[in-house]
Amino acid sequence: FRAVLYEELIFRGALLYLLIQKTGTNRAMLVSSAAFGIYHWFAWQAFGNPVQMLVIFLMTGSCGYIFALAFVRTRSMYLPFALHLGNNITQMILFSGDASIGDQMLLRTFTTDPVVPQAIISIPVLIIHYTGFQLLGWYLLMKVKPDLS
Fold first, then answer.
1. Which of 14, 64, 69, 97 is most buried by a 10 A CB count?
2. 107-135, pLDDT tens digit by residue?
């Protein structure tokens, strides 16, 4: 919760808001989402591994673009915050192998598991993991009428 609040206040609440006034909406959204992607290189300690950095930049930068689009469409921090929190919780529940919370739903837990999620659904899970949120978020946000007030 704290990480999402911190990131949203910096990247949407301050950076995006100021850039919209200085450079216009489209450029501001791109810069904000790029900064969000670059920030995660350091947050996830991936700096120095070019392949991992590219994957992280594309994944988190595209999510940052969706959060920025949510802010632009609603002129509110509520929707970007909710989307960001929901995305993080979903990632933790479905895809986390983090030792602090343990293996989650779509990770193999025991060596004797009769069902091995990686082997059965690895390609669709990878596609959903890296593009599903962004595509669904973009589609739904295109249906939201911008707040022009």
1. 64
2. 555 555 555 555 555 667 667 777 888 99
